[in-house]
Amino acid sequence: MEELTRVEVILNDMNGNPSCPHGPMLLFKRVVNGAERSFFACSACRDRKDCNFFLWADEKVTPNKKKTWDLERDRITPKINHVKLYKMFVKLLEKSPEQRAFCHTCSILLISNEIAKKHDEHDVTFGISEYLLTHPSELLKPLENAKKEAQYLFSSHATRTIVNIARCLGAMKVLCLGTPRVHELVCSEMSTEMDSLLLDIDYRFHQFNAPSHFCWFNSFNNYFFSQEEGAHVLAEFLQRDGGHGIVLVMDPPFGGRVEPLAKTVQEIMQLHRKLCPNIHTDMLVLWIFPYFMEPQVLASCPDFTMLDYKVDYDNHSLFASGPKGRKHGSPVRIFTNANPKDIPLPNEEGYRYCEICQRWISQENRHCTQCNECSSKDGRTYVHCNECMRCVKPSWKHCVTCNRCCLPSHVCGEFVPSQLCFNCGQPGHKKRDCPRFGFDAAFLIKKQPDCTLQLNSMKMCKKRKHTQNKIDEDEKQIFTNMSSKKQKLQNVNSKKSRKNIKKRKKSKSGANTSRRPTLQL
Ligand SMILES: [Zn+2]
Ligand SMILES: [Zn+2]
Ligand SMILES: [Zn+2]
Ligand SMILES: [Zn+2]
Ligand SMILES: [Zn+2]
Ligand SMILES: [Zn+2]
Ligand SMILES: [Zn+2]
C-alpha cells in the first residue's frame, strides 16, 4: 500500500516562529501514516526555489545556522527608503512625460535625460504619461515567471464595479490588500470622497505611493516588511474619521492557503475594533476568490456569503468573460461579510434581485423551489435532482448504480466511500474524482525518492459532499492553470540588485537537491 502524508497548517501565535525574508514562517504539521512531524516554512512562497528557509520544529537552531539565516535574510530583503523613492515620484510628476522613464530591470523611476550608462542595456520605458504614473499596475511588468502571466489584475470594468460596491457599503476608506487597481481608481478619480491604503507584497509600488498610502505587506502572516512603520500607517488609517466607513478589498493568490489569509483578515478586524471601541459593527470585507473555493472560505469565515458577481481579469482568459474568455464567464466571485441585499449588482450585465433569497443573482441563476435558493454557482444554470435532493451542474446525470449525480463519462462502481482520496486525503472519493483535482490537490504526498511536498488548501473536502463527481473539463482546466497564478508572491525575492538576480538564477538549478520537502503548487 502506498504511504500517504497529509499536511496541515497550524495557526499558532506566529511571533514565536522563526522568520524568513517574508516574515514569520508558518508552522505546518506533516502526518505520515499517523506519525506527525511539524516544520516551519515560508508563508508566502509555495515553491522552495523562491524561498528556501525551512526548519523542522524539533530541530535546534544552532548559533551558526541563526547567523547564516540572518545574513541571508539581510541579503535578500531589499532596503527601501520609501520617502526618498516617493520624492523622485513627486519630482517626476512636475516633469513632462518625455522626461520620465521607468527601468524595469532595476524597477525604478528615472528622469530620462539623467539616465546613467548602467541602464543602457536595461528594459526601460520612456515617455510615461501622468495616467501611467498614477496607474503603475498598468506600467509594471511581472517580475518573474513572465511567461506564466504571473500577476493578474482586475479588468477596468470589474475594478469599477468593486469600487461601486464598496461605495454602496458606505466606504470612505478602502483598505486594499493586494488590489492595486482598486487603489489606483480610488486615488486617481475618487480622492474627494474616498481614501485608500494599499498593502501589497509587490515592493515596486513604494515609489508610486506616499508612505501613508502604501505598505509592503505579506497577507499570509499579517507581516509588514517595514515592521512598526507599516503597522503605524495601518493603525492611523483605521482610526481616521473615527474609524467609520472602512471596507477591506482583498485579492489573494488563488493557490494560497485560506486559513492564514482568514487569520490576517480577522486580525485586521480585531485591530480595528481595538483602535475604535466606539464602532460596534465589523469592518466590511470583500474577498475576491474563485467560486469553487467557497467551502474553504466558509470554513474559515462562516459569516461570509458568496455573491454571484463574476470578477473579470485583464490578462487571463480563464478569468474573463467575452468571446476569448471561459465559456461560462469568469469563475472568480466576491465573498463578503456584508448583507448581500445591500450589494446591488449591475443590471446592465443581467444581474437581478431575487426577492426570496434577498440578494442579486446572475442572469443564468434560477431560484430552485425545492432547495429554496438560487442554486447555480459556476456560471451555468444548475438543475435539481430529486434523488440527490439538491441542485447539480447541468452536465451531470443521476446514475442509479452509483446512486448519485455524476458526469455521464464516469465509470460506475469506482467510487469507494471508505477509501481516502489520494489527492486531498478525505474519504469518499478517489483521486480522479477529487473536487480538488489538479489544483490544490496534493495534500497527500506520495512518498517518493524526491519527496515532493505540496501544500495547499486541505479543508476543501471537509465541507464538500464527498459523493462528488469527476470534475468538469473546463473547471479542471482552470484548476490546472491556477498553478500558474504564482504571481505577486515572488516579487519580494526579485527585489535585489541585478547582480543578485543573475546570481540566483544561476544557482536555481542546483538549489533543489535537498532532501527536505519542496513547497510548491
Ligand atoms: Zn519566505
Ligand atoms: Zn536599470
Ligand atoms: Zn433565489
Ligand atoms: Zn434544487
Ligand atoms: Zn442525482
Ligand atoms: Zn455510476
Ligand atoms: Zn479529494
Walkthrough of the structure:
The chain is of the alpha+beta class and 521 residues long. Helices cover 23% and strands 20% of the residues. The protein has 12 helices and 28 strands. It has an 8-stranded mixed sheet, sandwiched between helices. The longest helix has 18 residues, at 258-275. The chain is globular, with a radius of gyration of 24 Å. The two termini are 25 Å apart. Mean pLDDT is 79; it is low at 145-150, 437-474 and 476-521. One zinc ion (ZN) is lined by residues 421, 423-424, 426, 429, 434, 436, 461.
CATH architecture classification of the largest domain: 3-Layer(aba) Sandwich
| Low-confidence region ranges | 145-150, 437-474, 476-521
CATH first level of the largest domain: which class?
A: Alpha Beta
**What form results from the Cα inertia axes?**
globular
Compose a concise summary of this entry.
With 521 residues, this protein is of the alpha+beta class. It has helices at residues 63-76, 82-94, 130-134, 156-168, 180-189, 228-239, 258-275, 294-300, 460-463, 473-482, 491-494, 498-508; strands spanning 4-10, 19-20, 23-24, 26-32, 35-41, 54-56, 100-103, 108-111, 124-126, 173-177, 195-200, 214-218, 223-224, 246-250, 284-290, 305-306, 332-336, 352-354, 359-361, 367-368, 373-374, 383-385, 390-392, 397-399, 404-406, 444-446, 452-453, 518-519.
